[in-house]
Amino acid sequence: MSHMTSSFVVKSVQFRLLFLLSSALILTLTRCSKDSGKGNGETTPLLSLNSVSQTEGTGGNTKFGFELILNAASSKVVSVEITTADGTALTTEDFIGVNKQVVTIPAGQTKTTFNIDVVGDDWKETTEDFLIQISNPVNCQLAGTTYKGFILNDDTKFRINDDGSNTSPLTYPGYSLVWSDEFSGSALDQTSWNFETGDGCPNCGWGNNELQFYTPGNNLYMQDGKMIIEARFESAGGKNYTSTRITTQNKKTFTFGRIDIRAKVPKGKGIWPALWMLGSNISTVSWPKCGEMDIMELLGQEPNKVYQTVHFGPGPASTQKSRNKISTTAYSEVYHLFSVNWEMDKVQFFVDNELLLEMTKADAGGADYPFNNPFFFIINVAVGGNWPGSPDGTTPFPSWMMVDYVRVFQK
User: Fold this and answer.
1) DSSP readout, 130-185?
2) Coil, helix or strand for 398?
3) CA distances from 316 to 205, 283, 294, 304, 396 (A)
4) pLDDT for 73-84, tens place per residue?
């Protein structure tokens, strides 16, 4: 019995020692875990940056003040390096870039500011952004490494940039200029053009489930001999977007001739600019029997591709013939010339004087051929719809189509 008692006592002592050692180890590990990233028991603070949205101003530079924020003060000086990068805004043109600029937060403080100079101008632009990249943190951890600054528009003048050598002459051999709109006035010539307004009801969405509300001139501008249609992300008439649609219906109709329209078109998902014509008898025979000639259509998510199409047939659906042309650069970069050579029983479509589509009476087969009748012009920028789909976060607003002129030549 005495031997057993002695053995029991020894084992009890060993157990208690093991328990105490284990407890001490757990306490040490817990403290290490809590003190991870600490110096002298101090938690390494987390650093973040606020985003800035601000107007650029007109002329000179405007300082965009960015604030670096710690979630807790440090007993040490905190520093990071700041580098800018292009977003939709460009270095030098839109803002003054910095490279590995050191910014510090003094010990005991939780925030500091630094400035990025934004270049002011007079040009109306979409909201642009540039990137702020944070690196090389000292005495802090980074909540994120890339942030954005947003440059908001505060201007009213458009940057025209009349680039593109694709122009129309004032005469063709055997043809004379019978009508044109050079858009040189201060307002749209309403002796030639109508504003079509609303959302297209009762056939809402203009038959295509489009998302815009067409305003009576609010989205149309004249500057430097250009007509500019602006599509905006704004609410009107129960819609989330506004734009402009104009026609020459009942004012200017034409049968046959050479038609030239010089224009620069917008881009962006869900943006749908169009230069087109409808048969003047649409109110009596309806579409597609009246005929439709699409001189230019573009889907904003395919900025390098334009379409030329004819629609015809007894209905209710249309028979169509269509071609497209892919450019090495986006059609939004420079002006292009979109043309029609229209004769009895034949219509030809051109992009920059290159034949793209031809439609003849024989091509219509048994369907009615409507293209020997008078037609009127339509110019518009739609937003959304069955064909282009809806805009998304990448779509630039406002978006602009700029039309230099419409010219009609006849024999």
Assistant:
1) EEEEEEEEESSEES-SEEEEEEE----EE-----------S-BTTBEEEEEE---S
2) coil
3) 17, 15, 19, 32, 35
4) 999 999 999 999
Given a cut of 80, whether residue 14 has pLDDT beyond it is no
Question: pTM for this structure?
Answer: 0.78
Least confident of 21-25, 147-151, 159-163, 208-212: 21-25
Longest Cα–Cα distance in the chain = 133
Q: Please report the pLDDT score of residue 18 as a whole number.
A: 44
User: Which residue bears the tokens 């007079």?
Assistant: 122
Tell me which of 125, 128, 210, 292 is the catalytic residue: 292
Angle at 343 between CA 340 and CA 344, to 5 degrees: 145
Task: Tell me how far apart the alpha carbons of residues 304 and 325 are, in angstroms, rounded to a whole number.
Answer: 8
Name the CATH topology of 46-152: Immunoglobulin-like (2.60.40)
- Express each pLDDT in 53-80 by its tens digit: 999 988 889 999 999 999 999 999 999 9
Alpha carbons 340 and 308: distance in angstroms, whole number = 10
Residue 3 token pair: 């031997």
Domain borders along the chain are 46-152, 160-410
Q: Which of 230, 297, 354, 358 is catalytic?
A: 297
* Rounded-to-integer distance, Cα 125 and Cα 130, Å: 14
Is the pLDDT assigned to residue 35 strictly greater than 90? no
Q: Write the DSSP symbol of residue 139.
A: S
* Catalytic annotation present for 125: no
Percent of the chain at pLDDT > 90 equals 81
3-class SS letters over 225-240: CEEEEEEECCCECCEC
Do residues 281 and 250 lie in contact, with contact meaning Cβ atoms separated by under 8 Å?
A: no
At position 251, the amino acid (one-letter code) is K
292 belongs to the catalytic site: yes
CATH architecture of 160-410: Sandwich (2.60)
Distances (CA, A) of 265 to 72, 273, 332, 341: 51, 7, 5, 22
